[in-house]
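Re-run requested by the PI after the first attempt was lost when the workstation crashed. Everything re-entered from the original request form. Ligand of interest: adenosine monophosphate.
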Amino acid sequence: MNIILLAPPAAGKGTQAELLEQKYHLNHLSTGDLLRASASREDAFGKEMKKILESGVLVSDDIIFKLLDEYLEESENKNLLFDGFPRNINQAERLENMLKERNDQLDFVFLLEVEKEILETRITGRRLCRKCGSVYNVNINSLKPKQNSICDKCGGELYQRNDDNKDSFEVRYQEYLDKTSTLINYYQNKKILYRIDSEKPKEEVFQSISNIIEKEMTE
Ligand code: AMP
């Protein structure tokens, strides 16, 4: 089973990915996480990535596929959960070819829908665990960590992403509208797109996604 989570920034991709990964034993592949790992390095490539991520524009497709190929070479689990990838039609087409070569296919594309005003409040409150990657939000009661700046799950330190600020958000949101949202029609035509109201609490969003997966799998 291969799944894509398609959404504007801060719509809940990471949160839902965590839940889906556990329930369906998927390999969670976040291109944003791969890029942030590169950006944390002190070499020239790391510095270049840091700059691009902070600005909010998309990274070039060649870089994305290089990171992806490296990741897939090492991963054994065939079930993939794509978070933040593909971001444009070229990436979507290359993904399709890549899956074909593995005698595999895409099963579900979940579009997480959230109004822009809500995304703005979410983005400034988002916190991530440095150790296990768990996602929290200090602006949403149900997503607040029990202790300030400490992960409930592993005790790791919580941090705020450099691009989780209003200026970067505007650029990221515009990139989504200009490039990524074209994928909505693309996957709708392939009849694998499912719209999810992601303004609801995370458990309800997860339930909606799970219901669709289970219904389709039993048919
Ligand atoms: P995300 O963690 O998905 O919000 O991504 C953070 C940033 O990483 C984005 O604003 C882009 O600059 C970059 N990025 C992540 N995934 C991709 C992708 N598939 N293609 C191009 N850029 C990406």
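Saved to the shared folder this time. The chain has a mean pLDDT of 94.
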